Amino acid sequence: MTDADDAESRSATGDSDGSTSVVTTTGLTKEYGGRPIFDGVDLDINAGAMTAVIGPNGSGKTTLLKTLLGHVDPTAGTVTYTGPDVDRPMGYLPQEPAFRPQFTVSETVEFYASLVDASVDTEGLLREVNLYDARTRRVSALSGGMRRLLAVAQAVLGDPPVVCCDEPASGLDPSMARRVFESLAGRAADGMAVVVASHTLSLVETYADHVVILDAGGVAAAGSPAALIERYDAADLWDVYATVVDPATAGVSRRGDDDDTAERDAAASDPTADSGGDS
Amino acid sequence: MSPLAIMSTLIDRELRTAARTRSYYLLGLAVGAVLLGLTLGGGGAATGYIPAVVDLLLPLEILVPVVAVAIGYRAIPSDLDRGEVAMLDTYAVSPSAYVGAVYVGRAAVLSAIIGGALVAVGVVVAVTAAPDTGVFATQSGVDSPILFGRFLVVTLLFGNAILAVVVLASVVVATTRTAIVAVIAAVLAVVVGGEAAILLGVLDGVLDEATLQVALGLIPNSAYRGIVFETVVGVLSAGESGYASPLVSAVGLLLWTLVPLAAAAGLLRWRLR
């Protein structure tokens, strides 16, 4: 990690570019059975920005998100929420979301909407995630991708100041994946702090304001996509990733990550491919 | 949102989930058929409510825990597997409210299945038994639908206590697959293990006549049996009561309901952290 990365993992804390940090981690460390997942992670999650956490499988992305949410206790360090005092400070989209199969899409969203104080335009929300036409369908009849879209709607219900999304584009077709990222970027533009753990680097490069690359138990690099590309003299975020991530662990990532492999292979075989998107 | 409003929303979802689960209807039909078959086959239907109770008491000590396991073993593990509990945790839903709502929903299902089957049995007895079963109020010694109603209520108290144990055991394990094993082990430990412990206590002389009544009241099955003997069957043979203390037994069943639920909520809170 370079000095620039160190500074950038603390980037935009509300000091340099006017954005406001709503979650701060200091020296965040998590171990399982004595094996460190990550060690001494310092981050600022800013309101009005999408922060993407990327890294090889097993680098601690999901654990980091769960630690931010308070679902996992850190071994050391702190997570401090400094956002507004609301009933629901953080929304969450789990890695493999599912819902009760007996209910329709509308009923599921309305159930979660009834748990927040604010009135929610559930129809508008379903249109936003492209599920309005499927609103009367039972959850049991939805594809995996549609269930993920439903989980996206659930995550942003009531406009929590922070939303943590674990692989929001996993299992979605390219256009729907792009739509989900657009939707989350729109939420970020409206002031929400969006944290995304993702392997879809092309979408991260396009939509994220801040990227944190986890590897070998810590933050290997951090910054805006453009800054990282410039700093590492790279063609795109893929090149940054390949440069920064330990090849040994990156190999693990390539074997275990179909999204990454497919995207990279497609880009390599198609000279017209747009590295900035996967649609 | 107020905790009461959240609890109400969660209970509403549980009840609607139950109402849309077809297997519960099948389970209800099966339980009804078994109880009616036992009543008709045992002769209770032709002779009155108390004979029907005597016919059904022992089978219900087995059938009620089986129904409780079938209804409750995957309620919380399924939500955990789906990530719904983690999602609900981001709302102002406490583990206590969640566990309480799940329990109320499943208790309603158990009460509908067992209660519905027993009501059907009661109707059959009313139609087919001797004419003196129509007496509603008299001194002891006469069969009555009121006694059968007591039996029904006590059976539901017993079933809902076992259901609380099932809910607790299901939270202990990590996945839905292992939940069934943990739940069956827990129910066997409580139902069989409890009575075996009392038997050993009597044989070893640890339990005397006074402490035995208390011990019997603190084991769900013997508490259930004790209340039925004292307040339903024993009414026909006044002066020969004393098998168990109905008060201690009722407190025992209440404890077997509340303590496991509190433990389940605490355990879930710990699992989410």
UniProtKB/TrEMBL annotation, chain A:
Keywords: ATP-binding, Nucleotide-binding, Transport. Residues 23-241 form the ABC transporter domain. Residues 1-24, 249-279 are annotated as: Disordered. It comes from the Archaea. Residues 13-24 have a biased composition (Low complexity). GO terms for molecular function: ATP binding; ATP hydrolysis activity. The keyword Isomerase does not apply. PROSITE patterns: ABC_TRANSPORTER_1 (PS00211), ABC_TRANSPORTER_2 (PS50893). InterPro entries: AAA+_ATPase (IPR003593), ABC_transporter-like_ATP-bd (IPR003439), ABC_transporter-like_CS (IPR017871), P-loop_NTPase (IPR027417). SMART domains: AAA. The keyword ATP-binding applies. Belongs to the ABC transporter superfamily. This is ABC transporter ATP-binding protein.
Automatic annotation (TrEMBL), chain B:
Keywords: Membrane, Transmembrane, Transmembrane helix. Coiled coil: none annotated. The chain crosses the membrane at residues 24-50, 56-76, 97-127, 147-173, 180-203, 247-268. This is ABC transporter permease. The lineage of its organism: Archaea, Methanobacteriati, Methanobacteriota, Stenosarchaea group, Halobacteria.
